Amino acid sequence: MKPGITLPRHGRIPSSNLGWSIIKMENCIFCKIIKEEIPAEKIYEDDSTLAFLDISPVNKGHALVIPKEHHETITEIPEELLKNTISTVQKIAKAVENISDGINIMQNNKEIAGQVVPHVHFHIIPRLKDDGFKLNWRHTEYQKNEIKEFSKKIKSFL
Ligand code: AMP
Ligand code: ZN
Fold first, then answer.
1. What pLDDT is attached to residue 26?
2. Distance between CA atoms of 62 and 14, rounded to whole angstroms?
3. What structural domains does the chain harbor?
4. Pocket of ligand 1, candidates 54, 112, 122: which has the most ligand atoms within 8 Å of its Cβ, to mutate?
5. Torsion of CA 14, 71, 121, 79, to 10 degrees
6. What count of other Cβ atoms lies within 10 Å of the Cβ of residue 128?
7. 8 A C-beta contact, residue 84 and residue 48
8. Distance, CA 98 to ligand 2 centroid (Å)?
9. Quick one: which of 41, 58, 29, 34 has its CA closest to 123?
10. Residue 80 and residue 117: Cα distance in Å, rounded?
């Protein structure tokens, strides 16, 4: 018998990572754009990456860059593919620079961090003088020695 769990109405849910990633890919809106199952305003494409305009932009010209292979977050994507994706981010930023006064590059990982589409993507947001968009950055403080503790913790995983 194949591994996995049978659920009513859902059929067989695979237990392997490959099975789950196929299910996620099939439901992924960005994978549907890659497969041209839904339309998008594409601005650039190469063998491994795609750039298109965000349907609901912060400012007009707001672009998204994605790898053509489905990975959810920046920590899950293979390094070579991430390098290609970042190269495309720079290419698009250089183009967007010509229609803006500045650029924000944003990249959200996991729902808690604002990721709505679980396919790794970079936002290239053209910024214009007086565009009224404010990043709601807040600033907290370290207590005594805390900065050293955080540095030690993070370094222990490198
Ligand atoms: P995030 O919150 O970082 O996951 O961003 C997802 C972005 O994808 C949002 O800015 C959406 O406006 C954008 N988006 C969602 N669906 C589409 C689509 N079909 N075409 C273009 N952009 C999309
Ligand atoms: Zn996907």
1. 80
2. 37
3. 39-137 (3.30.428.10)
4. 54
5. 170
6. 14
7. yes
8. 30
9. 58
10. 22
pLDDT of the residue at 14: 54
Region at 132 (left for phi over 0; alpha for psi -120 to 50; beta for the rest): left
Buried b (16+ CB within 10 A) or exposed e, 25-35: beebebbbbbe
pLDDT at 91: 98
Residue 145: how many CB atoms within 10 A of its CB? 8
CB proximity list for 112: less than 8 A, separation 6 or greater: none
Q: Is the CB of 54 under 6 A from ligand 1?
A: yes
Question: Which residue shows structure tokens 């604002």?
Answer: 114
pLDDT of 148: 97
For residue 17, the model assigns a pLDDT of 66
Helix (H) or strand (E) segment spanning residue 122 = strand 122-127
**pLDDT profile of the chain (158 residues), mean per 10:** 45 59 81 98 98 98 98 98 98 98 98 97 98 93 97 98
pLDDT of residue 78: 98
Annotated catalytic, 139?
A: no
